[in-house]
Every structure is written in structure tokens, then in C-alpha cells.
Amino acid sequence: MARARRQQGVGRHYESARRKNASLPDGMLARLVNQKYAIVGEHSAAKLCHWAGESLKGQGGCYKSKFYGISSHRCLQCTPVLQFCNHACVFCWRMMPERDKFLRNLSVLEPQLQSEDKYGDVKGFGWDDAGDVAEGLVKAQKTLVSGFGGNPEVKKALYIESLSPKHVALSLTGEPAMYPKMDKLLSEFHARGMTTFVVTNGTLPEAVAKWKVLPTQFYVSMVAPNEEVYKRYIRPSSPGLWKKYQKTLGMMPEIGKRTRTVLRMTLCRGVNDTDLEGYAKQIKLAQPHYIEVKSMVFVGGARSPGRGLALESMLKMEEIEAIAHKLAKMTDYRFTDTHAPSRVALLCRDERTEMERKIKWQ
Fold first, then answer.
1. Cβ contact 279:262 at 8 Å
2. pLDDT tens-digit profile of 261-280?
3. Which helix (H) or strand (E) holds 252?
């Protein structure tokens, strides 16, 4: 007889998370716990990546490992803005596009980001200190990987290494630039000898401009070739976000003098996979060191019936390569590498960035 499914929101992991967090609605917290998110404080979380487990078993790493030299089993995938995003992309695998089931419209949060410590729309919410967030996320990662300690498929040396994460990917969910203490959080991680990737959707250039500390690699998501596609499929919380995104692209050449920059494309068939001229125009404006051309993945929230997507919405690896080659020709970038399991290709700006793409650990 098949084992009965546990009722959502019931169990020791949920009860433990509920005692530590006052702001997340019960339904949202239950879904996050069931999806194996480790909740940290009022608005942060970590989640073990599929590739971390594969790396622990010696079965390969993620595309960031192949492209940039990141050790997947020592990578902390996390967010300091678990419940906040001003995009609702139809191809997003997270639950955020259905946020109306859990929270009110979050667009009112944006004007408060840099001036308020409280968010009045969520009872009991206040921004956690950066030091507490960093410490909590590192501890959460150690707890998440601890289950691999007794797995006979896991190499002991790799497991021991995984207990001391060396890289932080602030990309799990939400819009990280909404956290008003981001530069302090980056400082906390850097002080621990960790490298950092931050993936922003580019809609808060004013916040980014105030960062005194930048991540090791600064990502901006490039998810629409033009404003029409952006408004229809990315579903921004306010109509002016496209202009703010363009402003962030214009800031990237200067940011690139201080740290490495990347434009990351997520392509979905019949949604945003045309008008390469529009993408090329954005690339020329931003002048990033790297471009990642990637297919969306039909998992998680992307499978929600209301999104109108299907397995065929994913682009095949050969299609991704073809688009990457076209963009390289249009922008004078160099087609450099691929990671077929992730359906992603890498373009580098020039020979120097191609040679220096692997991060040198301190």
C-alpha cells in the first residue's frame, strides 16, 4: 500500500520553522518547508541545489562549476528576500508568480526599501541584520548537507568540504536588491573567505548604486528582448520597471570596472525566444564580461496550468547553441563553452575574459 502523504504544514520541520518565523503566512511556509527550504529569520532561506548532491557523489557539477570553477558541493544557494519579487515571470520555477495566494501586492514595498526597516503589509516583519542573515544561511547549509554524511555514494572528503561552503549564490528566489543591507551582507560573506554571485532583475538601479561592496560576480537577468514582451510575459509589478532595467544595463560598464558582470538569459519557446536584435542591443549597452544563454526548465511553478507552458516550452541544446552563435556574431562576443544538462551556453566578451573566467580561490 502506498504511504499516505503528510498533510501540508504538519510535522516537526514545519513547527520548528514556524517558531522561528513570524511573518510568513502559514500556507506559504508550509509549501516552502515541503519543498525543503531552510528558513532563516524573517525573510531569508537556503535550499540545496540538485548539483550539490551530484557533486558530493562525484557525478559532476553545475554549469557554474564548468564555466567559472565553482565547487558545486561547496556552493550555498540562498536568498535574503524569500517572499519579495517585483517580477512574475511566466516561466519562473519558483512560487512567486502566484504570490497573491500568500501576500498582498508587493509593489508598495519598493519606495520603502532604502528608508524603512519595517514592512507594514506583513505582520511582524522587519529586516534582519546582515550578520545574522549570513550566519544563519551558513548554518542552514551545513544542516542541509548533513544528510549526505551517511550516504555510501558520497565521498567522505567531499562531504567534509561541503560543511565549509566557499561560495554563495544569492539567486534562489526573490529580488535580492530589495534587501536594503545587501552590501553589508556581501561584506559578511567576503569576510568569511567566500565568493559571491548576486542575480538581480535590474529593476532597482538606485539600490545597486548605493552598494559600497559588490559581489564577486554581478548578474542581471535578461529575460525579454523588448518592452512589449517584458510587460506581457515578465509581468512587472509596475509599468516603469522596464526603464529602470535599462538604467541598470547602462550602469554595467562602470560596475564592470570593479567586478565581473554577466547577463543571464532565460529563453522560453514562444515567449521570449525571438527578436535577437533586441537582445543584442541590450548586450551592447551593458557590455558584460559574460553572457549565459539558457533555456527555461519545465519544473516547479513553471508547470502551473495557468502559465500555459509545456515540456516543449524548453529549448533544445542545439537551439540554445544556435541562438548563442547568432548573438556572438551580432555582438562580437566569443562562443566559449556549453553545459548540455543545463541547456546553457557561455559567451565571453574577449580573449582576456575567456582566459580569466575561472575564479581563483584565495
1. no
2. 999 999 999 999 999 999 99
3. helix 241-255
User: What would the CATH number be for the domain defined by 40-355?
Assistant: 3.20.20.70
Give the per-residue SS3 of 273-301. Answer: CCCHHHHHHHHHHHCCCEEEEEECCCCHH
| C-alpha to C-alpha distance for 50 and 54, rounded to whole angstroms | 7
C-alpha cell recorded at residue 25? 503566512
The full set of domain ranges for the chain reads 40-355
Backbone CA torsion sign across 230, 232, 233, 234 = positive
pLDDT tens-digit readout, 97-156: 565 544 444 443 444 444 444 444 444 567 899 999 999 999 999 999 998 988 999 989
- From the list 127, 120, 118, the residue with the least C-alpha distance to 104 is 120
DSSP 98: G
CA distance 94 to 106: 16
Burial (CB count <10 Å: 0-12, 13-18, 19+), residue 150: exposed
Q: Are 183 and 228 in contact (CB under 8 A)?
A: no
pTM greater than the 0.85 cutoff? yes
In this structure, how many other beta carbons lie within 10 angstroms of the beta carbon of residue 115?
7
Instruction: With beta carbons less than 8 A apart as the criterion, state whether 165 and 138 touch.
Output: yes
The C-alpha atoms of residue 130 and residue 301 are separated, in whole angstroms, by: 29
Look up residue 263 and give its DSSP letter.
E
Residues in the chain: 362
